Amino acid sequence: MNQILDGLLKMVSDWNGKFEGAFNIRENGGCAGRRSTEHIKIETKQDKPGLDIRILPGTKGESVSIPACVTHGGVDDLTYNDFYVGEDADVTIVAGCGVHTETGEPARHNGVHRFFLAKGARVKYLEKHVGTGKGAGIRRIDPVTEVFMEEDAVMIMETSQIGGVDSTARITHATLGKNAKLHIHERLLTEGVQQARTEFEVVMNGAGAGVDLISRSVARGDSRQSYRSVITGNAPCTGHSECDAIIGENGSVAAAPELVANNADAALIHEAAIGKIAGEQILKLQTLGLTEREAEAKIVEGFLR
Amino acid sequence: MLELKDIVWRAPDGEAILKGVSLTVPDDTLMAITGPNGGGKTTLARVIAGLEKPESGAILLDGEDITNLNVTERARRGVSYAFQQPVRFKGLLVRQLLELAAGGEMGERRMCEVLSRVGLCAREYIDREVNATLSGGEIKRIEIATVLLRHTRLTIFDEPEAGIDLWSFGNLIDVFKDLREHMHGSMLIISHQERILQIADRIAVIAGGVLTREGAAGEVFPELMSDAGGNRACCGRREGFAG
């Protein structure tokens, strides 16, 4: 395995020379390694690029990692991965993505991930994105995530993009059935002239469904971000979204949260705040002996934790 | 020893808040600063910690002029300041804030020690964020813990009783009594609380931007109490709540 792939895998997944559990490593559109297990079957799609991942009902405590890496410029990778999570399964899915270019040519990965959670299934989904390498080649990651949750299904989605990606459009759609619960925690950092667009659309159709959507972002340098979320309640349900952004230098963030209640018992709340780091926060850490720069770094680190 | 010489500070609108305050806090002394709300006590504390720059006057710590040093430099020379209204941080954990205060990694046992001194159970708090989900009393105790961890030669508490309920106020008094006994330096506590004034060595009264009285607690405290009976000009809240 080359060093670039090894480095990217370490950044976006729990790769330590090997994976525990089921895995598939996608490298520049090809397969660099795969393992299915007794309960988790990974198969190549026949009609288009990508994988079908079937997690058998009742599978507990197992993990599946499907990192995708682009290790040089001139690659525009597109993949469709479908996860079928059986009844009462409880698993962790890691789907990191790293793009690297040094040749001045663009490197792009576009992953379309669909999750079908059967009744009572629980998924912890970790998605880390990173761009590396020097040169002017554009590093681009455009993930699309679609989630379909049946009764009592639970999904915790932690998604982060901390540095190095020049352009991203991140689109997430979810549909929730009765008592299904979705927690999303997004962390985003843009610098230089990077651009990021994030869209969440969550529709709650079942009584007792709930979504908790937390987005925290930092826009520095001359970077630009836009955030849009639409939470729709079509049944008695609860929805909470919280969008916080720190901007520094000439960074810019546009946030457009939207709530749609089509049922009188849909309790939907949105909180949003955009601004620079509060002066009192810096002062407090300075009274503990940190310099202004150290204080800012700690505040951002905590904020994006 | 802390010496303040003729400190003047104006609000951005030009109003003089401190009108020439001179005050000396000797070593191994717990000094309480009291006085009416709006009299300039918090401003004085912030000027000492470096959060506000005085228009004129000088601040000396152990003979060194620290007037032009910034907040970080003063903190590194041994000034600690517990905010009256503690700052909240989204994302930062109680554990991380305590470690920043302690200047390095802390074991769970040490976290437990310091948090139990302020009446909190470490297990319930160290992995919580220092955000708006903490109540006023909880964040105040964490604020005090950050200062306790620093063991500095000058520690300033700005109305430590504010936001703390009556039931746990007794514990807080014990914390200050304990600090008083093991003090290596000086302590300044801004307070309206009788029970804090009673454990002080010296009491200073700031009113209308000037120092109106300073002396041994044994002399000043009875005067304040007798004033408080009639024209209650400055302090002496007998009830447990303040701020």
Beta strands of chain B, count: 10
Physical arrangement of strands within the biggest beta sheet of chain B: 6-7-8-3-9-10
- The parts of chain B where pLDDT drops under 50 for at least 5 residues are 231-243
Helix percentage of chain A: 10-25%
Mean pLDDT over the full residue set of chain A? 91
Calculate the mean pLDDT score of chain B and round it: 88
Largest sheet data of chain A = 10 strands, mixed
Biggest β-sheet strands, sense, barrel of chain B:
6 strands, mixed
Global shape of chain A? globular
Compressed to H and E, one letter per element, the order of chain A equals HEEEEEEEEEEEEEEEEEEEEEEHH
Q: Which structural class best describes the helix and strand composition of chain B?
A: alpha/beta
In sequence order, what are the helices and strands of chain B, one letter per element? EEEHEEHEHHHHEHEHEEH
Count all strands of chain A and give the number: 22
Instruction: Please estimate the helix content of chain B.
Output: 25-40%
Protein chains sharing the most extensive interface: A-B, 21 and 24 residues
Binned strand content of chain B = 15-25%
Q: Gyration radius of chain A, to the nearest Å?
A: 20 Å
Q: How much is the radius of gyration of chain B in Å?
A: 18 Å
Measured between the Cα atoms of the first and last residue of chain A, the distance is: 30 Å
Shape of chain B: globular
Termini separation of chain B: 29 Å
